[in-house]
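PROTEIN DATA CARD
Card holder: Polyisoprenoid-binding protein
Chain length: 176
Origin: Flavobacterium hiemivividum
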Amino acid sequence: MATTKWAIDPTHSEIGFKVKHMMFTNVSGKFGTYDATITTEDENFENAKIDFSADINSVNTHNADRDTHLKSADFFDADNHPKLSFKASSFSKIDDHNYTLAGDLSLRGVTKPVQFPVEFSGLMKDPWGNTKAGLNISGKINRKDWGLNWNAALETGGLLVSDEVRLQIELQLAKV
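Structure generated from the sequence above:
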């Protein structure tokens, strides 16, 4: 079998997350600068090898003060830990459109195993003859597992920022 390399198409991809704020609304953010090495056997994504990293300084929640706070030692500590990374240990097929992605997520100097459901949209040729693949990765992590512990109590009870972070990652891959 031949090895196929894939690259993320940044104009059709988004590395996003959502966190509850004040226990009742969501704040969305994304990373604008990231890189990945993805290889498959031919065009079969089962057992794909995936290495991914994102630049912490590229975090964007559409609020400059919040972004600065997220980059600080209270959260990501970008000065000491400028990247988050993910290295897949398995990419297992459930059926034609559903996979499970497992691997190690490294953030703020802490590495923990994670597992996420992936919706595989299949392969398609674009109008210029390029082979594309679509992946939708979702899941949840507890930010405290990686030492992102900062919070503030609310007068009404509860906390300002939820521990749960929901990941929403849309990837369009281009066959290299």
